[in-house]
Write a structure and sequence with these properties.
- By secondary structure, the chain is mainly alpha-helical.
- The chain has 2 helices and no strands.
- Helix 1 packs antiparallel against helix 2 (about 50-85).
């Protein structure tokens, strides 16, 4: 394989690895936000459980779960691309 081709593939691989790290950092922030939201919801008095604020918090938690799933899918996809690049001869 041509040297320039190897160099370009390695550059793509490095960029994808950097992207994965950034995405994982964002996911850590999502996780922190989710934990904070769960703590707030756990501390809501029984009399306010059915309030609109609690419903909003529960909806946020559902959205955070969706975000986690989407990030996991994205990272898995990037990993597959990197694996594919490493198998190009």
């Amino acid at each position: 394989m041509a040297k320039w081709f190897d160099k370009e593939l390695k550059e793509i691989e490095n960029l994808l690895e950097q992207a994965t790290k950034i995405i994982e950092q964002a996911n850590e922030i999502f996780y922190s936000l989710k934990e904070t939201q769960e703590e707030k919801l756990d501390n809501v008095p029984e009399s306010l459980i059915d309030s609109s604020n609690c419903q909003t918090m529960e909806k946020r938690l559902e959205l955070f779960d969706e975000c986690f799933d989407n990030v996991e899918t994205l990272v898995d996809g990037i990993t597959e691309i990197i694996d594919g690049i490493q198998n190009i001869e």
